[in-house]
């Protein structure tokens, strides 16, 4: 799992980002959209593939589902385990492109900002479909290539940033092509990093009201056929 090495030194730094004023605002809007798309329910068994430090998993656990968090990086999983100790949350170290689960094991599956690091996204989607029961939902969130946030991170990668130098950002059109059926697509984070929080909230409300497809946080939801 050589890919895991680039994440192993990032757990604390990743979590600290969401403690900044703009990070807290981003976490609020992204979590809100994830809850809207995944609709977790009490008693459901849900896989969070590429769960990282569990930042988003925690908000999805509040309504009573049981989660399995999978990540390629053990330090990331360890951080998630500490954070989610009081929740019904199990951990598995593994690769999203070769999920270590039998078919139809989960009521729903979700992956948040992990597809950026997967070249063969179609294979990863196939894996999520495979382990999701018929009638279940598959939700994938990624950084939208149409957003200025993606452009900035791409530029940072070109300058040698260890996380972003091999990253792959996808557009709504590209996400639409990852599975045979058409997904529901929505975006959030229409404001920019430098925007003052009050102004950022106004920008976000406007972006959601017109259903803009250029928000930085792109979320797709597929329903697995019965």
UniProtKB/TrEMBL annotation:
Q: Name one GO molecular function term.
A: S-adenosylmethionine-dependent methyltransferase activity
Instruction: Tell me which InterPro entries the record gives.
Output: Methyltransf_11, SAM-dependent_MTases_sf
Q: Which Gene3D superfamilies match?
A: Vaccinia Virus protein VP39
Q: Tell me which residues make up the Methyltransferase type domain.
A: 47-140
Which SUPFAM superfamilies does UniProt cross-reference here?
A: S-adenosyl-L-methionine-dependent methyltransferases
Xref: Pfam families? Methyltransf_11
> What is the protein name given in its UniProt record?
Methyltransferase type 11 domain-containing protein
